[in-house]
Amino acid sequence: MPDPLIDVRERGGAATGNGGRKRMFTKDLLLMMYGFGDAPSPSLDSANLLDDMVSEYVVSLSLEMARCMERNSSRSSAPGPVELRLALRNDPKKLARAEELLRLQEEINRTRKLYSTDEVTLKAATSGPSTGAAPGDG
Questions:
Q1: In whole angstroms, what is the distance from residue 21 CA to residue 61 CA?
Q2: Nearest 5°: CA angle at 76, between 73 and 81?
Q3: For tag attachment on the chain, is the N or C end more exposed, with fewer CB atoms within 10 Å?
């Protein structure tokens, strides 16, 4: 079976210039380039080159995650955090950053859940029958 990472360019993937695909990251990359010290209006050619590089990396990472799913006989239909960790295991910096982002995502989800349950409890407590009388007027 041919290696899908090697033939990304041959299939007209992310590395073949525009290749008939919509550039997904160019606007964001222009802003990031300026934020990291480039000119206020960076060259569109530079942004397009970076877009190609980012797209190629995302494709290769996705394919590596799919390979990890195959190797581990994953029953899931989509790659998850386990496959991401396996795909990045040879790059300690990227793995550490991915771990940090996954931890933050879990924290955000816990906080959202906490606030949503507090909101439901608060609504239930305040939506009781109202008689218009002040407490203690009985």
A1: 19
A2: 95
A3: N
Digit-coded pLDDT (tens) for 62-91: 999 999 998 888 777 888 999 999 999 999
**pTM of the entire predicted model:** 0.64
CA distance 51 to 14: 9
Residue 57 CA, distance from chain mean position: 14
Q: Quick one: tokens of 134? A: 């002040």
The token pair that represents 86 in the structure block: 């396996």
Note the Cα 61 to chain centre separation in Å: 13
> What does the pLDDT look like over 35-53, one tens digit per residue?
999 999 999 999 999 999 9
